Structure formats: C-alpha cells, structure tokens
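INFO batch 0412 | record 1 of 1 | parsing
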Amino acid sequence: MFRLDLNFARVLAWLAVALIMLNTLCFVLRVASPVVRDDDWYFLDVFLRKAIDGGLSVGDFFIKRYGSDHAQPLFKLEMLLEWRYFDLDFAVGSILGVIAAAVCAVIYYRIIVAERHGDRSDVTRYLAWASICAVLISLNGGGGSWTWPLVALENVTSMIILLFMLVVWHSHRSQRYIGLAIATLFLCISSDDSALIAVIATVLALLLAQLCDRTQRRRSTWKILAVIGVCTVVVRIGYAYAPVVGGTPSMSILSNMGLLHDRFVQKGWWMWATLPLTLPVYTQSPFGFIGADGWVVVQVVMAVILLTAHLWFWGAAFRTEYSRLVFVAVCLMILSYGWVAGIILGRVTIYGNNYLNEPRYLLLYGGHLIALLLLWASSSRLMPRLSGWRRALGSSAPAAGCVILLLGQIPLSIHAWGLRPYEWIYYVQMAHQINDLAKDPVHPANCVPELPICGWPLEKRRELTRLLSENRLNVFSPKVQRWHSYLPPLSPDSP
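INFO prediction complete | emitting tokens
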C-alpha cells in the first residue's frame, strides 16, 4: 500500500510540475515583452550601441549607473546574444529565465530526493518539491515577473547562487577548495551586489551548522572562509574601478536609515512583515468570493501563520543535524532576510511602502517559502520527538498549505492569461511610440512610463531610435514582427 502511495505521489508531483512549467513557458512565449523598455534603453545606450558600432570592450560589461544599481555582466552578455542572433528580441530573456528556473527545480529535486528514507516521509518530499516548483515558476502577480525579461533573468542569478551554496557544502565535506575558488569568483563577478548578500548568508549558515551540529565541526573551516573571503574581496576591489555612467548619486545609508522611522509609522509596521511573507503565496485573492477588505484580513492571517513557521524553522535549525538539504534551507532563509532588508533600506525608504508590491521582487521574496518547504521535507527525523497531536499538526498543516498553494495556481494562471490581450495592446502602443520617436525625436508626446527615452536629451533620443531603425532591430525587425504577430509592420520609412 505504501509503495502504491509513493508511486502515486511521485506521478502527481511530476504531473503538477510539468503542467506548471509548460503553462509558464507557453505564457512567456506568447506574452513576454519583446519591446525595448525601461532599463533596456540604458543598456542599449551604454553597451549595445558600442557592440553595434564595433567599439565594445570587456570593461563595458561592468558599466553601471550611479546610485543603487548593479553591473549585471551576464545580462549584458545575454543582450549581446539577442542582438547577434534574434534582432534584439528582448522576450528571449524571459525564455532564458524560465530555463534557469527549471534548472533550479531540478537541483531542488536532487537535494530533496537524495535524502529519501524509504518511508512515508518520501510522500512529503514530493509534495514539498512540487510546491517549491509552484513558487519558482508561478504566474502569480499576473505573470508580471515573466513578462518583464530583465526580471525573469534574475532566475539566472538565483541559479548561480544555489550552485554556489552547493559547492560550499561540498567543499566543507570534502575539504577541497579549487572548485570553491572558481565558484566564488564566478558568483561575485557575475552577480555584483547580490553575490555579496549571498556570500554573507552562506558563510553565516556554515558557521551556524558548526555551532549547532558537532559532527559538522572542521578545523579546515578557516580555509573555506579564507578562500571565500579572498575571492570576494578581490572581485569587490575590481568592481570599485568599474566604469559608472548615468544615473544620480544615491543618498548615504545613514540618510536612508533616517527615513526608516517615517516609513515605519506610515503602515510600514505591518507591510514590511506582511507583504514579503505573503506575496510569494498569492499577490491577490485567487478566489473571487473574497473582496479587497477580506483579502487584507487573509493576508494578515497568512502572515501570522508564516511567522509562526519561521519560529519553527529556526527552532529546528538550532537543534537538528545538518545535511546538504538543511544547509541550503538555512542559506536561503538568511538570504531572503538580506534581500528584504536591502529592499526596505534601499528602495522603500525612498519610494514608499507600496514599493514592496513591485512584481520584480516576488522572486526575492519566495526564498523564505522555499526554505520552509525544504526544512519541512527533512523534518521527519524531528517528528518522533514530538507528541502525537504535535506530530500530526506538523505533518497535516503544512501538507494542507502545500495543496492550497498548488490548487491556487489554477485561478492565478487564468487571471494571468486573461491579461494577454491588454499586454499586447500595450506593446503595440510602445512600438508605435518608438516609431514616432524615430520619425520625430524632437516632439515626444504621451509616452508610456516604460519609455524613459522620451525624457532624455534630444541627441540621445535621435541617436538611439536611429540605431534601432537603421539596423532593423527590435520593433523594426521583420523577424521580430514575424515572431510576435501582434506587433505592427514598422520600418524606417513607415509613414
């Protein structure tokens, strides 16, 4: 009977994950934005323009703006490939984001299944893995994190960070350090500030493992810390000399911290805790019978439940034996705290508490849910220490939450797909406005917010729109127009 249950759970998990993945991939192929928008214009100006003109250098991969900006060399490399092979179709970035998320899903599968116990806890593991995939590849938030290619590409960064965590654990167990040096350098070079937060989180998790689990204590730990520290410092020194072009100098950390109190009393006292906890579950009510006021109550209830789960997480983390799975879970939890703190300090203090609702942050918020699911998947060895009702609650309540999370993907997907016609209309509007700028850069009119070029100096508007039109790139490319049939048939000579 157990074997039948396990096989049934395995089939259901793979079926659910396959449907989620296929649904998101189809959504990206149909709805992701191919049009140059937002930060794409900056990269077109400082990076792709040089590639097209033949003056690109290695240093250009590390250009960034003043303020809280990131160099994103991997993203620039991806854009270079988009230009060479896809006529600057930015939707390719979203496709790569889905592939990276799928790689993360496979890695999590290997992490969870590698610790199979041959008992009913394996059913829990499959349910946890399917739920992790739902968090990773969901169309939550109307699919906004997938329609914006630069946001979808953040999955590549998450994949690199996850691989780095695994390499650190392997080096800790095997006491080999060459691979660790390579992984640390690659992470720090490719991921800029995100790498710094990931390194701190991983080091703290490694130290916590040795504090809480005697079997993990190694005299060689100082070598791991030395390798990570030296590689990180070397790269950070290199980044200090990276070229800075555009943007405006940001306020100091002390100035930002001075604004924290004002934001905190302006609903920040509940939004800072509630939104990062609940948004990766559902950004809005997936059920039509819950109104706006009722949904706020549901969010608060979810936040209380998840805060309780966080207390359980740290209680378990301080008393359990550490394995690869537990180590990655602790890394992800600390990493998610670091990201949320960075968003609050660097963005919310400037733009207000509602900035927490930005779809681009769903990927960062989701780390805490994945960490909870990972530790729950390995919690069967803690269960025998609990009383009967606590053991049942520790098994049944999270399982029910996973089922609700998975079932909620259906209305979330229906809602996201329902937005497709409006997304297309918006892309067409942007395409026409880019065409108008190419014909008359002197008089930009009624530009949508995603076209920052409209507010740039005249010479810059003329130069960049001419670059696209003369090279038949992006909305002027017949190839891109053919791939995205809703785009208007623009050309440099269009009337």
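INFO post-check: Residues 86 and 366 are 31 Å apart (CA to CA).
INFO record closed
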